[in-house]
Amino acid sequence: QVQLVESGGGLVQPGGSLRLSCAASGFTFSVYRMSWYRQAPGKERELVAGITRAGGSTNYADSVKGRFTISRDNAKKTVYLQMNSLKPEDTAVYYCKAGHKTDYWGQGTQVTVSS
């Protein structure tokens, strides 16, 4: 069955870094565009970053440009989100999404940025 399993979330101080991972199984990972979304309490889910199938093109929300980097390893069927210079407003549940003819979502991982 299709699975997307996020990991790497946690509590970090402002200015710190985290690296999220999303391991995929049950579908042909390399043909799916991969994205990271986040949802903070009381807010709508928003797109954070996306990456094309071969990893040749990426896009970012303005709020994370220059701080976050999305990457993927098709051999390992994994997408990553490197998050640097974290701010309290980055606190949210982070989800990975696989997009093609059908969208698949992970269960999310909590990121909390607080001193």
Chain-wise SSE layout:
Layout: E1 3-7, E2 10-12, E3 18-25, E4 33-39, E5 46-51, E6 58-60, E7 68-73, E8 78-83, E9 92-99, E10 104-105, E11 109-113
Parallel strand pairs: 2-11
Antiparallel strand pairs: 1-3, 3-8, 4-5, 4-9, 5-6, 7-8, 9-10, 9-11
Characterization of this structure:
With 115 residues, this protein is mainly beta. The protein has no helices and eleven strands.
- First-to-last CA distance: 40 Å
C-alpha Rg (nearest Å): 13 Å
Percent in helix = under 10%
| Poorly predicted runs of 5 or more residues | none
Along the chain, the helix and strand elements come as EEEEEEEEEEE
In DSSP terms (H or I, runs of 4 or more residues), the helix count works out at 0
- Main sheet? 7 strands, mixed
> How large is the share of residues in beta strands?
over 45%
Shape: globular
Query: What is the overall pLDDT average?
Result: 97
Q: What's the β-strand tally?
A: 11
- The class by helix and strand makeup works out as mainly beta
